[in-house]
Amino acid sequence: MPGSAAELARHAVIGFDQENAFTRSLRARGLALDRKMFALRTDSDLAQLAALRAGCGIGACQIGIARRDPDLIPVLPAAFSLKLEIWVAMHADLRRSARCRIVSEALTQGLSRYVASVKGRRST
Questions:
Q1: How far apart are CA 121 and CA 6, in angstroms?
Q2: 124: pLDDT strictly greater than 70
Q3: Phi and psi dihedrals of 58, rounded to 5?
Q4: CATH number, domain 5-80
Q5: Residue 106 to residue 77: CA distance in whole angstroms
Q6: Cα 13 to chain center, whole Å?
Q7: SS3 for 58?
């Protein structure tokens, strides 16, 4: 178990192939990430999650997802916590469709409840 971000270099780390918001955010915090340090690189969140669950190394996923799998444990949570915006978007022409509006509202309400539940559990 790494005790610091610097110790990650001695572990198999699962990461992204291309730079993204997560890697830019970590770099802005002074955590130098280079794609060469990743033992497994993929830009697919699902592939990264599958690799985490298979025990291929240390990686990142959403707190709400990790809580559902007792085999996943937090590693350096203070160093790697990241808040990202969530957007629900729809083409303006589809807003007139009752079906699309209902789906959009259901997604918005469901995501709002999910975000609130993750925030509530984070403080405990």
A1: 28
A2: no
A3: -95, 135
A4: 3.40.190
A5: 31
A6: 15
A7: strand
Q: pLDDT tens for residues 15-74?
A: 889 888 777 877 787 777 778 888 999 999 999 999 999 999 999 888 888 888 999 999
Q: From the CB of residue 13, how many other CB atoms can be counted at a distance below 10 Å?
A: 20
Helix (H) or strand (E) holding 78: helix 77-80
Distance CA 41, CA 27 (A): 17
Structure tokens that stand for 50 in this block: 């599958």
How large a percentage of the chain has pLDDT more than 90? 40
**Model confidence, pTM:** 0.70
Instruction: Kindly state the tokens that stand for 3.
Output: 């005790």
Report the alpha-carbon distance of residue 23 to residue 79 in Å, rounded: 12
**Residue 35: C-alpha distances to residues 23, 42, 78, 99, 103 (Å):** 9, 10, 21, 43, 38
Beta-bridge partners for 13: 58
